[in-house]
Every structure is written in structure tokens, then in C-alpha cells.
Write a structure and sequence with these properties.
The chain has 556 residues and is mainly α. It has helices at 2-21, 29-38, 40-46, 64-70, 81-97, 111-117, 119-143, 159-173, 182-190, 192-195, 198-215, 220-238, 240-243, 250-258, 262-272, 278-293, 308-314, 316-326, 340-365, 374-399, 402-429, 435-438, 441-444, 459-489, 491-497, 503-516, 521-546, and strands at 61-63, 216-217, 274-275, 450-452. The termini are far apart.
Length: 556
């Protein structure tokens, strides 16, 4: 194991250190090709060791020492390095902006460190949110097989999903340490005194569940626009009339495929959604629990980020507990209860998007003329780093105290995520555009390595036979992850999150919104007065017909 690590370290050293620290000429393949073609015969006679077997004037093959001498030993940026970087930075930032963050102030963006430094754990925590809803639905089905009589306005609701919504909201919004007996308390409250108050209390339970369901939001439309822009960038790369790029090089396609795991993670985050206002949602669930708990103390809220002054007064320790619960875990607590076999299934699903992204990027890089190049090494290194990050997060979650866990996970995410992100984006601008990386020395060895200065015959094969199929299959599978989860693996969980509200209750909610809207209060008052006056006129008319009141033309 130690020898393997030393070998990998030496490869990385050869890739970066000579290219950055040497004072030689910048590598530029087109400039070097023109210079070699101009004096090919003279160079072959004076320095035959500079050329590899099979070299000719139209397609010269340079050895590694020959490339260092004739083309330069430093890595050279591409002429269009700026547009190459912007090709994927802007779509990636738009996708990240569509993630759902817990409203904990500006500190919620520290979740980005966990998102980039440990995407497997981020995906897994999202899956655990859905799995928590599935578990609560199973508990509810065992507790409420069917009430004796529903209120008419709620007769179309699925009863177990109502209780599952309450349990899931409490687990998300309140301190889980105070919710160990919540299900038992709600059951006892519903069935108190031989079910005499069941119908009334069940209506209260349903109203709270409906309110929480309405407070849950998603941004699917905005996310769809960001995904459209991401796909449009591939059109720019592959279609010359749109993007002006004659050849979709692997250096432009590979980074995009390395970031393709953004698609299922962002889609899953929006498919789950979150409460639009945590404070309003906490008030709703606590208002219901006041009736359930009676005189007993209510569960504590999940603390949102306090103000700076309050933070200074409360001290660093309270902030660490808050940070542990929300920020370092991707805004999702690590507490979860799932069977071991189910954890294995969810773990494999969480690894799949990242493994698929790295596999497609590796296939794009593993092409002629370089084959196993420096970019392929960074792809394997990135995947290994993300796997190690997930392992470290699991160890920290199970064995480290919560007061110190957040610091370890946060620093780990920064140390792992930053180099990986740089090694994904900088090669797009030409970081590995050097003699060593272009020669395929990692694949062929230094002695057999050579640089093809005019690989024009190889590029069409890559552009038409390898890149389109690899990109198409990779993106299609990434986009199928969330539909497969919603339609098969976690179907019950998504149905529990987005259960249908009865039509009558929707109309009631619309009426409430219309009344609370500015400028509509006077209209509702006039409508109430008109209705009241109409009812009074009807009563007077009935009394006149019965003779209890004199008619309009009669005298006393």
C-alpha cells in the first residue's frame, strides 16, 4: 500500500512540478508543429533521438526529451482558456443555486463545502429524508388502520399519510431528542376517553397536516431551466454552427462529465423540497403539539442561526452544536433509523451518480493519442478522494463527539473538495497541456512515450464515435436516477411527501390567501355585510308572510 501511494505521488509530482516551476518555453502544439516541419530534415540528421519510430514530415512523432527541447517544458494555456472555463462554471453555479438550503442565515452556504467535498454523503442524506417518510408511513399504518368516521371535508385524505406528515415534520423541524414518545402521545390523544373525541381531534390533526403540506415548496421549474442551460452547453461544444468549436476536444467534455453528478443531486433536492418558512412551519407543528402535550413541556425547535450578539453571549459551544446538526451534514441531521440491508441499497444508490460521472469522464480521457493521461489520473484521484471523504464522514458520525465532529467534517470537506474542484476546472484551461501529459508517459512509460504533433486523423474518430455516445449514455443515466427513485425504490416516500390535498381544502386555502392579501380585506367585509343584509331581508319577508309583522302599506 505504501509503495502504491508513493507511485501515485510521484506521478502527480511529475505532472505538476516540472510544468509549473521550470523556466522553459510554453508548450503549444501548433507552434511546435510549424517549427518542426520547417526544419524536419535538419533536425532528424542532427538529433535523431528527438524523433520516435514512424515519424515523418507530415506527422512527426517526438520523444519526451525531443519535446522538452523543441516544444518547451512548461505547460501552456489554451488560446481559448477563458471561454473553456466559463462553459461549465456558469451552468454549474446555476445548478448549485437551485439546491435547497436550511434557512440558517449566511452560514447555510457552508453546506457547499460538504456538497463539493462529500457528494456521496450529501446524496445519502437526501435519500434518508425520503426514507424517514417511508418509516413514518409504516408506523402510521400500524397505528391508524381507519377511524370510525371522518369529517366530510377530509374524507378523501389517506389517513396514514396524515400522521406520517406530522411525524416527518416534527423530526425535521424539532429536536429529535424530545420526540421519542411522539407517536404514542398522538395516539393516546386521538383515542382518549373511548374515542369520544376522535372525530374532532382527527380533524385538528388533519388540518395541521394539510397546513404543513401546503408549506412545503420546490423549485422544479427554475431547476429545469438550469438543467436546460447545462445541456445547451453540450450543444455549443458539439455543434460548430452554435458554438464555433470545430472539434469537441476531450479537455472540454471531460470536466462537464465530471460535474454531471450535479444533475441527480439537485433534482433529488427539488423532488423532496423543503418548508418555505421554517419558522411558520415550526409554529404550525407546535400549535398542534400544544393540544397533544397539554401541560407537559413542548419539544424544542431546531435552532436557526442566532444573531451575532446572541452568538457572542451564548458562546462558541452552542454554535458548534447548531453547526453540527445543520451545516456540516449538508443541512440534514445524521440521525436516522434504517435497516442494514436498506442502508446498503441506499449507499449504492448514493455512490452511483458519482461513479457514473467519473466513469464517463475517464472514458472521454482514455482516447487516442494519449490514452491514460494526466486527466485520467485526476479523474481516478477525484473519485478516490470522494470515497475517502465519505468514509471519514461515516467514521466521524459514529465515533466523534458532536462538539468536535463538525470541525473535522468541515476541514475535511475543504481539504478534499478544493483540490478536486481545481483539478476538474484548471485542465480545461490547459493545466495538463504539456509534453509529459500529452506524451502518454503514464500509459507507455518514459522510454516509449511519444508526442503526436499532428493527430488530425484521430480526432474525427473521437468526435463522432466516442464522445457523443459516452456523453449521451452518461447524461441519460444521470437523469434517470430520480425518476427511478420516485417510481420504484422510494415511491411510497415521495407519495407521502407530496400527497394530494382534497379539493375542498384547497378552496378553503385559496379563500384564506385572498382574505389575507392586501386590498382584499375591505372586499371581504362588504361581502360579509351583503350576505348579512340578505339574510335579514329573508327573515323579515318570512315574518311578513306569516303575519308576524305588518306589510309595507299597512297602517297601525
Amino acid at each position: 500500500m505504501m509503495s502504491f501511494c508513493l507511485h501515485v505521488a510521484s506521478i502527480v509530482l511529475f505532472m505538476i512540478v516540472p510544468s509549473v516551476t521550470s523556466l522553459g518555453q510554453l508548450y503549444d502544439r501548433s507552434v511546435c508543429l510549424s517549427a518542426v516541419n520547417a526544419s524536419y530534415d535538419d533536425l532528424c540528421s542532427r538529433n535523431p533521438e528527438y524523433f520516435a519510430p514512424g515519424s515523418n514530415v507530415s506527422r512527426p512523432f517526438l520523444t519526451l526529451p525531443g519535446c522538452y527541447s523543441l516544444c518547451g517544458s512548461r505547460w501552456g494555456p489554451y488560446p481559448d482558456d477563458g471561454p473553456r472555463l466559463l462553459d461549465w462554471i456558469v451552468p454549474g453555479m446555476l445548478l448549485i443555486a437551485n439546491l435547497h438550503f436550511v434557512p440558517i442565515g449566511g452560514k447555510r452556504y457552508t453546506v457547499l463545502a460538504h456538497f463539493l467535498g462529500d457528494p456521496i454523503d450529501t446524496m445519502l442524506r437526501l435519500l434518508y429524508l425520503v426514507e424517514d417518510c417511508v418509516g413514518n408511513l409504516r408506523k402510521a399504518k400500524r397505528i391508524i388502520p381507519g377511524p370510525p368516521g371522518d369529517p366530510p371535508e377530509f374524507r378523501y385524505l389517506e389517513r396514514p399519510k396524515i400522521l406520517a406528515t406530522i411525524l416527518s415534520a416534527a423530526g425535521r423541524l424539532l429536536d429529535p431528542r424530545d420526540l421519542s414518545d411522539l407517536l404514542e402521545r398522538v395516539t393516546n390523544w386521538l383515542t382518549f376517553d373511548d374515542n369520544k373525541h376522535f372525530r374532532t381531534r382527527y380533524a385538528v390533526l388533519t388540518e395541521a397536516a394539510v397546513a404543513l403540506r401546503h408549506l412545503r415548496l420546490h423549485d422544479i421549474r427554475r431547476t429545469g431551466f438550469a438543467i436546460f442551460l447545462y445541456f445547451f452547453q453540450f450543444v455549443v461544444v458539439f455543434v460548430y454552427r452554435v458554438g464555433g468549436s470545430p472539434n469537441p476536444s476531450g479537455g472540454r467534455v471531460s470536466p462537464a462529465m465530471m460535474l454531471s453528478w450535479f444533475l441527480p443531486v439537485v433534482l433529488l433536492s427539488n423532488a423532496i423540497g423543503d418548508y418555505g418558512s421554517w419558522k411558520h412551519s415550526q409554529d404550525t407543528i407546535l400549535k398542534f403539539l400544544e393540544k397533544v402535550f397539554g401541560d407537559d413541556p413542548l419539544p424544542a425547535r431546531v435552532p436557526l442561526l442566532p444573531r451575532r450578539r446572541a452568538l457572542r453571549r451564548s458562546g462558541w459551544r452552542s454554535f458548534t452544536a447548531h453547526f453540527t446538526e445543520l451545516a456540516c451534514s449538508g443541512s440534514i441531521r445524521h440521525d436516522h433509523s434504517t435497516s442494514s440491508s436498506r442502508k446498503v441499497v441506499l449507499g449504492l444508490i448514493a455512490v452511483f451518480p458519482i461513479a457514473l460521472a467519473c466513469a464517463t469522464a475517464f472514458r472521454v480521457d482514455y482516447t487516442a493519442p494519449t490514452w491514460f493521461s494526466c486527466r485520467a489520473v485526476t479523474v481516478l484521484g477525484s473519485f478516490s478522494g470522494w470515497l475517502l471523504s465519505w468514509i471519514f464522514t461515516s467514521i466521524a458520525t459514529n465515533y466523534l463527539h458532536r462538539d468536535y465532529r463538525w470541525f473535522f467534517i468541515f476541514v475535511k470537506d475543504i481539504l478534499i473538495g478544493t483540490p478536486i474542484l481545481l483539478f476538474i476546472l484548471l485542465p480545461t484551461a490547459g493545466l495538463f497541456n504539456s509534453c509529459y501529459c500529452v506524451s502518454g508517459a503514464i500509459f507507455r512509460g518514459k522510454i516509449k512515450a511519444f508526442i503526436d504533433l499532428n493527430p488530425v486523423l484521430l480526432y474525427p474518430h473521437n468526435n463522432y464515435n466516442i464522445y457523443p455516445w459516452t456523453v449521451g449514455i452518461g447524461l441519460s443515466l444521470q437523469m434517470l436516477v430520480v425518476p427511478v427513485l420516485g417510481l420504484w425504490v422510494q415511491r411510497q416516500g415521495f407519495k407521502t411527501i407530496w400527497w394530494k390535498v382534497p379539493r375542498g381544502n384547497r378552496q378553503h386555502r385559496q379563500d384564506e390567501q385572498r382574505e389575507n392579501r392586501p386590498g382584499q380585506q375591505w372586499e371581504s367585509r362588504f361581502a360579509d355585510r351583503k350576505t348579512e343584509s340578505a339574510s335579514i331581508d329573508e327573515t323579515v319577508r318570512e315574518d311578513m308572510e306569516l303575519g308576524h309583522l305588518p306589510g309595507p302599506h299597512t297602517r297601525d
